[in-house]
Amino acid sequence: MKTHTPQSIRAWKDQLISQDEIDRYLVDGKDFIDEQQIYATLDGQKNPDTSHIREIIAKAYSIELMDSEDVAALLQVTDPDLRNEIAQAAIEIKKKVYDNRVVTFAPLYCGSKCVNRCAYCGFRSDNPSVIRKVLTMDEIREETRVLAGVIGHKRLIIVFGEHPETDADYIAETMKTIYEVKVPVRDGMGEIRRVNVNAAPLPIRDLKKLQEAGIGTFQVFQETYHHETYQSVHPVDTLKGNYRWRLYALHRAMDAGIDDVAIGALFGLYDWKFEVMGMVAHARDLERLYGIGPHTVSFPRLTPAVGTNFDHLRHQVSDADFTHLIAVLRLAIPYTGMIITNRETPQIMESVIDMCTQRDAESKIGIGDYSDAYRKDQIAEREQFMLNDTSSLDQVIQKLAKQGHITSFCTAGYRCGRTGDKIMGLLKSGKEGCFCKLNAVLTFQEWLEDFASEETRHIGEALVRKEIEEIRERVPRDFSQATFAKFLSDYERIQHGVRDLSF
Ligand code: SAM
Ligand code: SF4
How many CB atoms sit inside 10 A of residue 235's CB? Predict the structure, then answer.
């Protein structure tokens, strides 16, 4: 691992941001967050009447990005019954696009060194309470062995502070190392089949390195779309202090050939309605330039972090508003995947999962925590912030199955090129659901064989049988006889130890 002096860190920082890779995306010198316009739109939609809201709900079923006036009107709804109607539509739209599938993943924190000083984050450079560590490739391998071989994850999101020790070369090497790990388990092989990345914004030349190393989704949260608030929590003399470098991080990713990008805002820093408007504007600008919107959206809420004082943050989002904003996002960007994380309590997770498509499970966000004694407790000094749901993957999957959700470990769509605009077209037409349903059943059965506790296997297999009957009823309307026959044969082969079968 390279060693760094204050001078080499400064030199690295100085060459990272290229102004040209911001300016090329501006329109008349302006970015796509027009604050006056957002405020005016929100003001213009105050006290919307019920019939207008119902018209907007009906339009959402066309699975197109929603007009900002309509998004604002939905956001302004306060009546609990009307909010409930919006939530019910959100559940139906999730089902229409993604059926009853939920994808699980885990974050793998690779480094806690960071040159930035984000006011809300435990990893900020001026926080003496956090232990600083960057994992070696051997340690990455150890972490992956537990994640893929003991817990049974197939997807990871790897997470980094912004630091020259965790630059693009390190991130690319980490991805390659993770993909190489294969762990024998029961009848099969534990392995990570998709690595997503949550890292600081990068220049296009670095993003190409991640693309070459086999990145899944590149995820960057804007934190807040409000310029002034952004500046108040990200000091201007830091890399992260450059609002527009971050705002166009995913445009650059698209230009580097990464066509699955993920947006998000950190709720609690500014007005939640403004942030939702910002996320929709972000999706619109991506659609304008690349023809496709974000692959996923995230809406983390601020949670306590060691050595970090939140008292000055006056925009905490209540549970009721949080649930409402998730429903509005579901309708506003109906084709997108939506990620809820263990920052939330099990109760909140359970109440919003019907509107979401992905959640993490059995997450550990301390550096080296998966392999390090596979401990149950959180150690605040190692962590960026604290988690509220610490259930195991087995418990999560069992609970989801009891609620009728099938956990999909499918990563086939990505490997056979169903990404970017191809997958967006399929999602909008409802066709992606057909492929995915078959793959969800096959990969779920594979997981049950290799990792489930006896109780979870029992509950999961009952769900699988129900799914197979549902698929059988859709022949020949959605699936040909030949496809169904191949599916049944693959299902049996999985029960006999064959792995990684998919459509
Ligand atoms: N350092 C990179 C960056 O800032 O983009 C990588 C990601 S950072 C480790 C992951 C995300 O954690 C941040 O984008 C932020 O939204 C979130 N985060 C930071 N502090 C948090 C807190 N106290 N509570 C909840 N989420 C937090
Ligand atoms: Fe560093 Fe990211 Fe934390 Fe900011 S949010 S201090 S950039 S790790």
Answer: 15
